[in-house]
Write a structure and sequence with these properties.
alpha+beta; 16% helix; Jelly Rolls; seven-stranded antiparallel sheet; single chain; five-stranded antiparallel sheet; 2 domains; 254 residues; globular
Length: 254
Amino acid sequence: MMLKHNYWFFKNALPPEQCEDIIKKGEARIAELKNDGFSSSATTFGENYKGAVEDGKPLNDKTIRDVEGKTYVRDSEVCWFNDEDMKQIIYDYVHKANKNAGWNYDWDFGEDIQFTKYGLNQFYGWHFDGSSDHHGVYKRYIPGVTKVKLKKNGDIPTEYVYANRYGSKLNQIGLTRKLSVTINLSKPGDYEGGNLKFDYGHHNKDIKQFYECKEIRPQGSIIVFPSYMWHQVTPVTSGNRYSLVMWCLGRPFK
C-alpha cells in the first residue's frame, strides 16, 4: 500500500545515560547466556541465520526468499528483556508515531524487547518483520500434538507460541506484527555502517527504491514503521552497533 509516511522517528528520545545503562545490561545478559551454555546468535523465521548454515557466506542484498537453504541473511547477537517500564516508554512513542504518520493502525501490546548487538561485518539482510495479515498471525504449539518441522536446534518455528516454565505467550495467538520499533543505543562515532535501510519497491516513481535511514544515528533515537515494510541493517564496518527492537501486535488487517 502507498503511505504518506513510510516511517516516523524521534531524534535523541532516550537520554545517553539510559542508553549506556541498557548496553551494559544487554552485554551482561549475552555473557550470562553464553556462560550457561545457550546461544546468543539471532535466529529468523526460517533457518537463515549464521549458526544454522554450514560454510554459508552472507549475501547482503539478497532476500530471505533468494537465499533459502543456501546461506544466511542474519548475523548478530541478541537477548531479551521483559521490562514493563521500558515498554511503557516505547508505547508512548508508538502512539505518537501511529497518529502523526496517519497510519492509525489498531494494535494491542508489544512483544518482549530484543536487545541486539552487531559487531564487525555483522548485518541483517532484506526481510520484513510480519505480513500484518492472517498469514502472519501467531499460532499455538501443543507439544506432541502440533505437527510442525522443528528447527535444526530443536526449537519450534518462530511463528508458534506455547506456555512453558518461563512464562506464557498464549496472549499472542491470533495476533500479528503491525508496527516495528527500533531504538539506536550507540553513539554515532562508536560504529560505522550498520544503517537501517528500506526498500520501497521499484514501482514507486515518486521516491527512490532504496533509502538508508541515517536520521536515527544519534544516540537514543527511535524509529517506528509498519512491520510489513522490507528493510535491512547494512554490515557494520567498524565498532559495535547496539539497538532495542520491539514489535507491536494487533489483529490482522482484513
